[in-house]
Amino acid sequence: CKQHDISWQEVIPGRILHVRLHGVTRSVDLINLYQHVSQPCNMDNRAELWSTLGHLLSNFSKKNTLILAGDANCSTDQRCSAVGYPTYERHGQRHHGSLHTDSHLWTQLLKQSNLIALNTWNPQTGATYEFNHQHSRIDYIICRREHADNLSRDAQLLHDFSMLPLSGAFHTPLLTTLRKD
Questions:
Q1: What is the pLDDT of residues 118-134, one digit of tens each?
Q2: Whole-model pTM above 0.90?
């Protein structure tokens, strides 16, 4: 697209970025998310972010393609229409990773907006975040249900990505496709 076909806004600076690619008959809405770390001192900020994100999603045209991706700093705690498997595989075993007291808000937001977390549908998909012996699935690629098919639900973790650090904390990049209308 051309530069004048792109608009953007920092809904919450450093936390929610909305980019719109304006099309002739419909647009593409891209949301980048970075939720606050789950700590007692951040719970009000986390609740505000969930609320703001829910309000933002409710104002988009249903005909637009929607892609939400980023670090939700929150696990999915239950299998539902938006989440395939709340657990992930690591070294041949199933794990929940970190459990978050507000994960029900995250899951409810996805369900209410008719969204689907694409990297939760393959039972072999692993953790997206690792640091020392800690691991969890807190990063996601999300779209509307109508843009998800079997191929998109088989999101891949790019463990061989050249920019991953050799030590310390890291988030594994995700790759998938979306069904085109």
A1: 999 998 889 999 998 89
A2: yes
